Amino acid sequence: MSEMNRRTFLGTGAAAGALAAVGGCTVPGGEAGGDGDGSSARGGAGGQSAPESVPDFALDEITIDAVHEGMRTGEHTCRSITEMYLDRIEALNRQGPRLFAVLEVNPDALEIADALDREFQASGPRGPLHGIPLLLKDNIDTADGMTTTAGSTALTGSIAPQDAFVAARLREAGALLLGKANMSEWAGWKSFEFGASGWSGRGWDGGRGGFCKNPYALDRTPGGSSSGSGAGAAANLAVATIGSETDGSIVGPSSRNCLVGIKPTIGLHSRGGVIPIAHSQDSTGPMARTVRDAAIMLGTMVGVDPRDPLTAASAGNFLTDYTGALDPAGLSGARVGVLREYAGFDSRVDALFEEALDVMRAEGATVVDPVTLPGELRFGNEYEMEVLYHEFKADLNAYLASLGPDAPIKSLAELIEYNEANADLELALYGQELHVRSQERGPLTDQRYIDALAASHRLSREEGIDGAMDEHRLDALVGITSGIPAMQDPLDASGGGGGGCSTPPAMAAYPNMSVPMGFIHGLPIGMSLCGRAWSEATLIRLAYAFEQATNVRQPPTFQATVRV
């Protein structure tokens, strides 16, 4: 389908009706952004409609520690907890508010829960996640009854021959992999005009599915590409979730869903068995409602993996337990630098950021303001894009080859052909120009790629994060994770809301962490902390101290709409 045909389709009454059928979405006129009335308060809400009716939930906001305490006392079993989450998904995912956050649940979930209960009774917990139901983004392989598709119908029915390394590590820690979370198809690497985060061909299903929704305001974006992971954790569809990020896809949805998200140093977690965009920037990470839960999860996912050569560098640099960094006084004596150039897009968000900086000062941190990074470090710069074009082609072809001879598609070229042949579904709303441009690139030996990667690392590391932190003797850099969640508008490729400082650590392959900072009219806003390679423990220490000083997190109320 041509670009003109796609836009013509979206402009018709039939298109509006189709969007209304998928979770009640309409095509809004755009985001009410820009400067407003200055209403920005932690926990503040205003301009809200009547909320969607959602049943009470006994496990609402429960933590990993609380689940385990309930299992020890006999109040809960793994089976009872799993049954409650399955009921919760049934009530909220395609009914009620119709979040469309979960693409499928594990058909063997209850049998696995029973086995975990027997093991708990016989020998105690297997590990720090024993019996904890988690949702995984749909680009993380599981060799079980669930498929892994990156949201694309091109991989319908694809069951991986083995678990992704991170999925295997989570199982070893005792986690119950409850289901696969919706996502922006191919992690958003499909079209420049991928305006609506959380859209996937698999979720859309010819108009029978829907866009993933933000549980704080159902007509606003949950962020992407880990959309279902963000909405699922926020709406208590699981104890926590796993997302993935190439540039902003863990921290962005975490900000928009009032979550803690950790994008680790590249190599801390293996990408073996994760459908890729680019090995230079891809990572997986936890998305949770508390810093402690995110820290517990992070330590279970580490390790050197032959399937991912970059994990070799993590030996001696990872911890299997990051909870030792949970110090409520962790900001005392710290030095943080302010990424001021990534602010200034909305006065209300800026005001909230200033309050957060004041909290850090009050907790004993020295705030260095501003700290400047090279101006080229903005999302979509020529160096980052060239790296992603080349690596997507090479890495996706390698992943598809790992599926064996029965893979539904076997190359990026076949994917492009599949999308064209199924244009009414896969290209109904968005094109695939990013796929096409990637296919046009040569191998990773091309000088064009080698030069782009070298420039990307130089700008983001020596001249960027490392340079700034050396100059100012910093423990971390701090900035606004993202702006006000935008209206879910398929025609708006900007994503709306403004802001975001994920690109410097993404290009550098360094860690980045988002922690809830506050609300604007009930819509969540997050603060980012990033730093040097392998500095996850430092970021957790600072984030935990901020979290304990502010206690921002509030569960969603499933408003139909919020005016800002």
Question: How would you concisely characterize the structure shown here?
Answer:
This protein is an alpha/beta fold and 564 residues long.
Question: What does the model show?
Answer:
With 564 residues, the chain is α/β, with parallel strands linked by helices. The chain has one domain (38-550): Amidase signature (AS) enzymes, CATH 3.90.1300. The chain has helices at 3-10, 13-21, 64-73, 78-92, 109-123, 165-172, 201-204, 227-234, 251-256, 291-300, 347-362, 382-402, 412-421, 423-426, 433-440, 447-472, 503-508, 536-550, and strands spanning 102-105, 133-137, 176-181, 240-245, 260-263, 283-288, 335-338, 366-368, 476-480, 512-520, 523-530. It has an eleven-stranded mixed sheet, with helices on both faces. α4 runs antiparallel to α5 (109-123), α12 (382-402) packs across α15 and α12 (382-402) packs across α16 (447-472). The radius of gyration is 22 Å and the shape is globular. The two termini are 36 Å apart. 58% of the residues are buried. The model is unreliable at 1-46 (pLDDT under 50).
Describe the protein's topology.
Layout (H helix, E strand, L loop, with lengths): L2 H8 L2 H9 L42 H10 L4 H15 L9 E4 L3 H15 L9 E5 L27 H8 L3 E6 L19 H4 L22 H8 L5 E6 L5 H6 L3 E4 L19 E6 L2 H10 L34 E4 L8 H16 L3 E3 L13 H21 L9 H10 L1 H4 L6 H8 L6 H26 L3 E5 L22 H6 L3 E9 L2 E8 L5 H15 L14
Helix pairs in contact: 4-5, 12-15, 12-16
